[in-house]
Design a protein that fits this description.
Length: 95
């Protein structure tokens, strides 16, 4: 699902709001999540899941094409842990 499809679906559900208003709301939510993660905060959405940053240490890797060693710098990566109700909803679809 893309952002535009999400905006369309939310606009259909909320009849009192225009597409532009829904787009502003969704962009505000995503910007708030992005800012919180950039500050190192954990985001917890009950019933859906948790977003948090993990630190990856610097390492020496190998370029598979040339075989030469390459230094990979330390970096932060986002980790998502699915919530139990969401996990159960996903797995009940297959039954």
């Amino acid at each position: 699902m893309t952002r535009s499809v999400l905006i369309e679906k939310v606009t259909e559900k909320l009849e009192g709001l225009t597409k532009k208003q829904v787009e502003t709301i969704i962009n505000t939510i995503f910007d708030g999540m992005k800012d919180a993660l950039a500050r190192g905060e954990k985001i917890e959405i009950r019933g859906f899941g948790n977003f948090r940053l993990k630190q990856r240490n610097a390492k020496t890797a190998r370029n598979p094409r040339t075989g030469e060693k390459v230094q990979v710098p330390a970096k932060r990566v986002m980790h998502f842990k699915v919530g139990k109700p969401f996990h159960n909803a996903l797995n009940s679809v297959n039954e």
